[in-house]
Amino acid sequence: MKIAVMSCIHGNYEALNAVLLDIDEQKAEKIYCLGDLVGYGPFPHAVVEQIRSLDIPTVQGCWDEDIVEGLNACECSYPSLLAERRGRNAHEWTHNNIYPETREFLAQLPLTLKTENLCFVHGSPHSNHEYLMPSMDAFTALERVLSAEADVLFCGHTHIPYLRQLEGGQLQVKINQPHLNDEQNLSFTTPLKHIINVGSVGEPRHGRPNATYVIYDTETQGATLREVEYDYQKTCAAIIEKGLPPIFAWRLARGLEYAEKADDPTHVCQR
Amino acid sequence: MITAVTGPPGAGKTHWIREQISKTTDPVGYFNPGEDSVVIDGTCLACEFPQVQIFTSGEELQRFNPEFVSTTYIEIPWHFDLSSVEPLLTRLNLKRIAIIPSSSQNPEWENWADSAILGNKNIAEPLSKNHNYSVQIHRNLLTGEILDWTSLALFWFELIQGAYGEVIRAKGIFDLVSGESIYGDYVAGTINQEFVALNVPLWLTGRPERFSGLEIVGFNLQLKEISQTLKDCFIPESQIDYYQQQIQTSLQTEEEVTP
Question: A Gene Ontology CC term for this entry (chain A) (predicted)?
């Protein structure tokens, strides 16, 4: 069965519709969404309505959570004062423009979805604020997939798509505790695991404005990264028209994020 | 000897003056009638060469006296009408130098000069052309403000990439929370240097009482956005003391562990 997995739409309705059309052309039988429906972009309500009307299984992203619970990520989420002020501007705008029913929908989204050996999260199985970067050391990456009790872990949040294969191997763990005389030796074999980051529909950071998502074939286990062109100028015009900072439009048109990511992207906020 | 230097923006006027000053340890005067209160080039020269004295508008006539300094450089900005400064230049009986790129399409500077020197030949075409009224010069006096480095780097990237209008020349001196004063320089069409720290003491006690500022030349500049984004890079008053104490503690620790 072909499934489509997308993430990080960020209120970009034009990009979402272009991706949905492309998914239709790819004849995917099921769509999953990894959250961050809102934040930064000009159409948070329309995006949520579209996702809801199509009954797309969706997990809660960090921006969805912040809109529900209030912005309380610690300062170190931002690499600079400028990025922090922009993030706060975007949060305030979204907070003021979102409908109550949209907020209610975001509030009830689960943090994790599972179907058979596939797991869907926004950031990582531990937190929707954690970045699973492609450079993360293999042991930690493997731990994240094992903790999800899945063979394939789908994530977003970094806005950079990638496919990572964690080869099966023999792991040995030595435990030495003060109250135990003998050292404990544990060993176990790990099967082949995959992490698939599906990129971002509405806020790419790969140097082009195009939306990205992934088609996954559950039978062949093949993943295809799709890059979809759309009329990003419409979104840029709406950003300015609706009173969001014009710099968001400039950055979107160049495939840059609205605000820079933290220096230490693996950092998880201590809330 | 007094030397007047002019040429298009980014051609290397200040660079040429700097090369001349570096050959002497005698007192040297420097006057740039276009810098007003935003004295970026003069501050850089004075930081690098202690023998440089900066003349400000209004005092130039008495300071051009050889009793004070035997050598003076007058840097005439590219946007000045040369005929308007001609009465002053005639009275001073000086040498005239034009720094021009190879692509210069404006013979006015060459005709005006006693000698023309080839400067930065890679500057973008708009810099070497005759400029009309649509060119804007925007200056921000930033003295007393302390900027967050990563915010400044982000703003600078966006600025020179055209987020706030077409920028053909930008230069600035900025005080950072680390106590450093740094200089940034952008000339469209050329490979631009990283920010460099000026040779001045670290300022770690309150707001810096020394010059900092920004000058931008370009077209369709979004001045309101530029000013607001710069403000968003400022360290808030309430946090200045906290950061400066942290830097001071860190420096003291370094001194203690260094034998």
Answer: cytoplasm
